[in-house]
Write a structure and sequence with these properties.
5 helices, about 130 residues
Length: about 130
């Protein structure tokens, strides 16, 4: 009986986490819609803006895979969309032809700066900070 209760509590906690995640993503998506961005789009721009590689180098796409909650293929499609919109640019790694770099364009950096307070306000609203 105690194990069943523990399982029920664990399941309830998991469902609570999923509900908070869904509400937060929905709020961010709504807030960023006027900017032509979704939550995942902004997350990639935010990571590129917040953690520039040392020495002004570009960020490898592979380094983003573990930091965003998207599959490798979904991330590649998202980056292709951002590139089409002129927000990021991709280039090949000369040392490793399999490697792809991505970096913000000036337009991407400007849009990120404009949308940043809106995204942070959405986080504060949904997470109660």
């Amino acid at each position: 009986m105690a194990a069943k209760t523990a399982d029920a509590r664990l399941e309830e906690r998991w469902r609570d986490i999923l509900a908070v995640h869904a509400r937060t993503l929905g709020e961010i998506d709504r807030a960023l819609h006027p900017y032509g961005l979704g939550a995942s789009d902004f997350e990639v721009l935010d990571l590129l803006a917040a953690t520039p590689p040392p020495g002004g180098e570009q960020c490898r796409v592979q380094n983003l895979v573990g930091r965003v909650h998207l599959s490798q293929s979904a991330l590649s499609r998202l980056i292709a969309r951002l590139e089409k919109d002129g927000l990021v640019e991709r280039s090949m790694c000369l040392e490793d032809r399999r490697g792809v770099y991505v970096q913000l364009t000036p337009k991407g950096r400007e849009l990120h700066a404009e949308a940043l307070p809106v995204q942070r306000a959405a986080l504060a609203r949904t997470l109660g900070e």
